[in-house]
Structure prediction request, 109 residues.
Amino acid sequence: MSKSERIQVKETKRYWGDFEGSLESIISSLQSELDDGWEGIEMEPSSEGYDPVGPCLYKHRPENDKEYAKRMKQLETQREKQKKEKLKAKERRHKEYEKLRKEFGKDTL
Prediction:
């Protein structure tokens, strides 16, 4: 996949419906969420990573223009950072080479 293609984003929202009561009322509440485009439900982990906080609805959707632009900017920043790191590594290797060349001379190889 090309990095410039649109990706699917997982959107979540806390589900405040009640899981106590008749199955009919629970199913009715969940059907309403399904009708609104939500695909499933999962337990949201706590920020500490221990017991789950509660149920969370989720759905997948294409990223919007703002998310796409942000991701492209992050990718460009990441590429620039990698180029700079590669150049710095090359400069360090060259300095080490020059140091060794001075220490051992040109003709010792």
